[in-house]
Every structure is written in C-alpha cells, then in structure tokens.
Amino acid sequence: MKHLLILSILLFGFINESSGQSSQKEAKRLYFSAIGNYSINKMGSCISDLRKAKKILKKTNFKIQPLLIKALFKSCDYESTLKEIARYKALKPNTEWAEYLEMMQLKNKSTDYIKQSQSEYNKLLLSNKISPHYKFRKNNPKSSLIKKLDKRIDSLEYLSPNANFVNQKAYRQYNKRNYKKAIKLYGKVLTNLPENHEANFWTGNSYYDSNKLTSAYPFYKKAVELKPQDYYSNYWFGKINYDIKSYQLAITYLKKALSHKQNDYKSNYWLGHSYYKLNKLNSAINYFESAVKLKSYAFYANYWLGQAYSDNGQSKAAIPFFEKSSQLKPDDFWSQYLLGYSYVQTDDYTKAYEYLKKSVNMKSDHSYSNYLLGYTHLLRKEYSLAVKYLKIALKINPDDIYATYRIAKAYYMNRDMILAKEYFNKTIEMEKENESSLTAYAYFYLGSKEKAIRIMQSYASKANTDKSRQSFYCDYAGLHSLLNNRKETVKYLEMALKLNYSKFNQIDINPDFDNIREHRSFKKLISRYKN
Length: 531
Known about the structure:
Elements: H1 2-39, H2 43-57, H3 64-74, H4 78-91, H5 96-126, H6 141-157, H7 163-175, H8 179-192, H9 197-209, H10 213-226, H11 231-243, H12 247-260, H13 265-277, H14 281-294, H15 299-311, H16 315-328, H17 333-345, H18 349-362, H19 367-379, H20 383-396, H21 401-413, H22 417-430, H23 437-445, H24 449-459, H25 466-482, H26 486-498, H27 504-509, H28 520-530
C-alpha cells in the first residue's frame, strides 16, 4: 500500500510536469508566431496569439505585454492599449517615463485619426454618398479619449523624470509664439526642479519675446548662475542688461559670451552699442569693426560704425561705412543724410550735395539736412537755391542762428540788399546775449566795421580750446580779408593752420578770402601748409 501511494504521487508529478512543459512550449510558439505576424503587419493574428499565450501562462509576461501594447496601438484599438499600459504599469510601477512616451504617441495618433475621419467625411459629402445632414460627431470616443489622455499627461508632467519631455513640449509652444503656454509648461518643471537650466533660460526667452523684460530678468540671471560657461545664457543676460540701460553689466556678460563663442557677430555688435552709449567711442569702434568684418553685408553694423567714427570726429573714416549702409538700404534717410554730412565735414561739397539732396527728398521736414543743403548751394554760389533750403530749415527751427545768418549772406551775395539787411539785423537780435563771429560779420555787412572788429576781439577770450581757437582765427582772418588787411589776414590764418586747421577746401571756396586770394603771401602760406 505504501509503495502504491509513492508511485501514484510520482506519476501525478510527472503528468503535471509534462503538462507544464507543453504549456510553456505552446506559449513560446504563440509568442514567436505573434512576432512573425507583427512583422508582416497582421495585427489581428498577432493580438490573438499574444492573448492566447497570456491565457496559457495565466499572468502578464514582461515580454508579451510590451508587444501586445504595440500591436493594439498599431491597430488603432486605443482603449485596449490604455488598459494594457495600466496592467503593465501595475507590474512595473517605475515606468513613468515609458508610459509618458506611449501617452504622447497615442495622443498624436488619436489626433491624426480624427483629422483623417473628418477628411473622409468631407470626401463622402462631396461625392453625395452621405446625407449633408449627417455631422461628424465631436463627442466620438476618439475625441473623449484625447481629453482623457490630456489629463493623464498633465499628471505625468509633474514627475521630475519627465522634465525633458515637458521642456520639449514647452519649446514647441515657444516656436509657435504661444509664449503664455510655454511659460506655463516651463513653470511645471520649475515647480519641482527650480535648478533646471533649460526651463529657466527658455522662460526668460518667453518673457523677453513677450516684451516683459522685468519678468524675464530673474530667469536669465538664474540661467547664468546655473551655467556660467554657457554662451547663450551670457549673451541674453548681457542683451537684457543693455535693454534696461545697465550698460556696464551688459559689457561684462557680452564679453563672457564672446569668450565662449569667438567671432560672434551679435556679441560684438551689442558690445559696440554698449560702449557707444557710455560715450567710449574708441572701444565702440573696435567692436563695431569686428562686427563688420564678420558680416560685411549687415546694414546696422556698417551704419553704427560710421556713426561712431563721425561722433569721434573722424568723418573721413566714417564715409566708406555710410556709403555701404546707403547701398544696403538705399531708402534709409539717416544713411543718406549722414553720408552728406560727412562729405560736408571733409569739404567735398560736390559729393555732399548729391547725398543731402537725396536725404531732403526722403524727409523734407528735417531741419539740419535742409540747412546743410542750403549751405552747400551757398558755397556753390547758387544763391536762390541756398535761400530756398535755408528758409525751410529756419521754418522748422526758428532759433537756428546759422540758417538766419546764411540767408542774409545769400541775399547779400545775390545783391538783394533790403532782404540781406533784414536777416543781418535778425542775426544780431538773436545773438544779443551771446555775441559771436556771426554777429561781427553781420555788423560788417551792415557797414559797422569798427564794431565788427571790437566784437571779434572780445570773442577771442571765449575761444579756450584748440578747436574753438582754430575757428576763431580762421573767422578773424576772413574778416580782415574783407577789410583788405592782407598782413592781418595772413597772420591769423597762419595761427589757425599752426593749430592743425586743415579745411583747405573751405578756404579755397570761401568768398571771404577773395580779396587776398591772389596775393603772393597768401598763396605761399596755403601751399606750405597743404604740403
């Protein structure tokens, strides 16, 4: 009896073992069959095989489950896909990242399905195969599925392992210029990961592009603190400091950006601007020059390099850059005007006339371009045109003493003595509180020669720099020339030339020197200093 019991137990175990082995073999066969069906895109057969295999094993297998999720997903059975994902997550709780990825793919697939359904409906409607009264149901299961997915994705986004995915989603919103949505999504990351560099930097960019500089500032600052060696963080923190007029801080961070990305056009350009705002023109010129070398076709770099040279008293150096900017933007008023102005400063009145005429045609209400054009006509002895443009300048700016005096001079040279006297008297009236060489010349043309000399002598004490003394000596020399005092003319002109006065073109065409122009001592003096 004892032996029979032992034999029956062994026999029962053998039968169970054989049955278990055959079940494992069948499950394995079904699994490989499912793989084959999946590869040839027979999703129905694949799903059937995998479910049979699951039933045999009486549990979820880690190999079967992912393939089943993929097959259900590919066959557009989204509800079943979600259920299988939930089962898989129950077995492997730490799969938030994987689940999030599946969710995003599923949502995109569902959205595509709805679009496809609407497209198919429109085709049927056009072919009259369905009634026009039938409407695509917005509350269909796929639409409600998307809503469910949105809620699930939102809950997953708060998990720190998903920060990169949320950042990517936010960046897509940023690229679409949906800055509010981008800020909200980046905020989700920063709630749990305040030290996330990417979220801080792009939140700063989102606020910056929304023109909310105050809100952008702390995020850019945090980005720089988190990644001090990052070019973009340093550049944008420097740029925002420039925008809020913290020019010294802008220089500090733009230089850091430049150290991490050599030959960077933007950093050089804004460094030039920052130094320009601080009136450090030599430094501004250096950085603008670097910007122009990097992008010779950049309008603004050429324009501002010309502007920096012009403000630094280097009009000749400014000309090629204003010429380039005027070529790049022929309809830009300031390029044409400043090019004309630079040619006036270098006494090339033929070229000056060309560009000043263009600038006046572009902007007829600009006072100084009209004044310079009028002055150029005066030097070209075109007195009627000189009066025309000088009067426009005076109408725009009634306090312009130079326009007033030169209108008087144009009338005088055109032998219209009544109007000349009127404007010379206006010049004297305008300068009664602060007499200059213009007042002296006005008195001379009105016949008060001694008073003219007296004013010039008193004006001498006000010339306290080399540049002001240059102008004073040249003006005094011109007055003596009008008075036919040849010796005094040469004396004061030489004093101006010794101080590096170099406007020989202006001396050559200035009618004030006509009385002495042919005198030997005058020619000898000009020739010596020209050489």
